[in-house]
Every structure is written in C-alpha cells, then in structure tokens.
Amino acid sequence: MLTLAVTGAGGFLGWHVRVLLRALGWPEPTVITRADLADAALVGAKVAGVDRVLHLAGVNRAQPAEVAAGNVRLAAQLAEGLRYAPVPPGSVVFANSVQAGNGTPYGDAKATAAGILADTGLPFDDLLLPNLYGEHGRPYYNSAVATFCRVLAEGGVPEVHADRELSLVHVTDAAARLVGLPAGGSWDPAMPALRTGVRELAHRLTQVAATYRTGEIPPLVDRHDVRLFNTYRSHCFPAHYPLALPRRADARGELVETVKVHGGGGQTFCSTTHPRITRGEHFHLAKVERFVVLRGSAEISLRRVGDTEVLRFPVSGAEPTLVDMPTMWVHKLVNTGSEELVTMFWTNELFDPDRPDTWPEPVEAARAAPLAVGA
Description:
The protein has helices spanning 12-24, 34-37, 40-47, 64-84, 105-118, 144-153, 171-179, 198-212, 223-236, and strands at residues 4-7, 30-32, 52-55, 92-97, 124-129, 131-133, 165-170, 194-197, 243-244, 247-250, 253-256, 267-273, 278-283, 289-295, 297-304, 311-316, 321-325, 329-335, 341-347, 359-360. It is 29% helix and 27% strand. The chain is an alpha/beta fold. The strands form five sheets. It has a five-stranded parallel β-sheet with strand order 2-1-3-4-5, sandwiched between helices. It is built from nine helices and 20 strands. α5 links the parallel β4 (92-97) and β5 (124-129). The two termini are 24 Å apart.
C-alpha cells in the first residue's frame, strides 16, 4: 500500500487511478490542482514524504503554441514544487505519451516535460502511454472510442474521416502500471494493446451497438471485447435502462428470455430475497452483471464511484425488465415488496473467489463522499 500525490486527478486517467485506489482500499491520494502548482511551497508540502507522485496533468486540446507551453509549464511548476519538499517523495511517475519527441508541438513538449522532471534527481519513471480508452471517456476529446460510443448510443453512425492504425490500452491497465501494481485482479500493468484501424474500430463498435440494442450480449471472447463493451455501456447509462423484456404466454404459463449471448462464457444464478433485505453494495472494474426481477418488486440503486448522486430504478416481476450494472458504479438491490423477491443474475464470467472483481462499498453512506477533483 503506497501513499500517492496526483496531478490531473480530475481527468479521465486521474479518475480511473482514483477508482482503482478505492477498490484496493488504499488511502485517497493527495490531489495537486493546477492552482496548487502555481505555489511551489504548497506543492512541496503536499508531496512531502509520499511514496509516489503521479504527474497526469497535461494540455491535449488547444492551439499548438498553448499545447506546447502548457505541458512544459505544468512540468516545470511540479519540478519546482518537488524541490521545496522538506522530505522528498520516493519517486515521480510521468504519464507521458508515445508521441513524445515526434516533432509536433505536443510531442516535443511532452519530451521536454520528461526532461524537466528527470532533472529533479528523484527516481523517475517516464511512462510512454499509447491511446487510452475506457468507461466515461469524454467524446470528441479523450479518444475515438469515446466518440464512436457516444454517437452510437445516441442512435447515430460513426464517421471516419481518415483511417490509420491505433494501439489502444484500457485505462485501468494504465492506472495499474502508474500505481505500480503487479498483474492480477481486473488489470494488467503490462498494458496489452488492441491494435486496430479506425475504420475497423468503428465497424466493431457498430456491431456491438446493433446487438445490444435489444439487450442481447455481443461476443465477449477476450478482454478487449469485454472492455469495449463496458465502454459502450457507460455511454448508454442511464438513458437506456431499464430495458423491457418481451413475454410469451400460453395455457402453460409465461416465458421470458432474460439473456441471449452471442459468444463467450458466463454464469447464471437466481436468488430469493426476503422483504426489506438488501443485496449488493459493491462495484466491479470489469465484470458485466445483469439483474432481472422475475417475481416481486424491488429497487435497484446505483452511484458512480466518487459521485454522490444515486440513481434508482423501480423494477417488478409483473413487468420484467433488465438492468445491466455499469462498471465502476456501486449498486444494490432491495426487496421493496411484502413477498419474497426472485431475481435472476447473469455475469459474463465464472465466479472466481481468488479474483472476484467485487469491491465492497455502500451506495449511500459516508464512504460515498466524492473523490477529490483537480486539474
């Protein structure tokens, strides 16, 4: 367990780093905002004695001169603050880019920033990151994956203006590498990449969206299939849920198709729940999980990790619907009726007690305090 200080904590990568720390039960990182960086003494006090400083802040979208100056300025401000620390931090890790030194204003600025941080004399890890994708990325900003997912979730068609090869790494894997975790759980710090073309990516996500439109599960054969699907689902939530399930009835009774999987593994199980009893109070980093109430009435409550707003879905066996739990959202199911509740659950993988990908956290409690946000 390490103590961390983080710049860029409010960004895409920063949020995923903090979610991973929350799952591990590590201390909340010390957040260094852009305003803080202007005060070297304050930065020095914040980083004093921490095990690792993660420099995630950067300027990605602006005029070329502003991109270049901004990335160099942020690194220089952090470096100056590090020199003020009464007890130096153990190491500095820079979320750099594979574009560093490529002759563009952005790439050359990132290379210069790395040199500035290396000159502090502290143990330094210059991590060259490729394109990152994952849940809750900003469309038209963080990645083509986020843009295509948002367009498809809103019923549109992705546009590909220029095809090129991409090397895509899931953001949780990058977070694990930055934090210094060994392989295990739902992450891989080796950062295995999905290599694909832009046009191929658009086609792949279009197929995912077409299959999932009626609640059917697309093929989830490998880890990138699962993570692309989870990324797409993050752009569907909450507007697309609950999704009604058609019922077929005859003289024998009724039939409801709850899960139709086009490829990949999975596990289905049912539970009974007594009135006013709660199940859940946890979140997942990668696991796909579906709830379908078959008898009785219940409320499904969800909260995005680090947020305070709780979303609630009343569901009933009288009108079966599905709600798929988005990854990195704490969730629970409460029997709100007077009779026994019968619920069907489906997950995309067999339960492994050694790697359960189930991280306890209450939906509504003091622990639900928001993650600190910084630039």
